[in-house]
Amino acid sequence: MNARPRPLAEDARLRPMREDDLDAVMRIETAAYAFPWTRGIMLDCLRAGYAMWVQEGAAGLLGYGVLSIAAGEAHLLNLCTAPGHEGRGHAQRLLQALLKIARAGGAQRVFLEVRPSNPRAIALYQRSGFNEIGRRPRYYPAIGGREDAIVMAMELLPE
Fold this sequence. Notes:
- By secondary structure, the protein is an alpha+beta fold.
- Helix content is 28%, strand content 38%.
């Protein structure tokens, strides 16, 4: 196994998600997660005006993120890299863009939940400045039962 991270594709770009992206987003969502969001949830978030961004390259969509902003706080609801495109910095780049959007939207802190069984995501969030602030027992559906959520937060300092 090659331990070196693969380079970020030069042509990868970020842009707001559109309704016509939902088929591709749902293909990624269902490939990446055992318990994916539904198309209806994605569409509701899009229509509600949540910050929803995609990262795309020559191969199509590489990932997406969903962020809600209200009352001086933001909540990272979903951040996903397409299976097969992990380890190239896509999630880090998308997360940083969403944090800038949160800051521009007046958020002073950002919250998220992550599965304890997802060490790559936990490491990404810790590297980005998030800290564990609590747990939500039995928050996520899991094969054979439920899984806790690690609640993480970070303060958004002015740039």
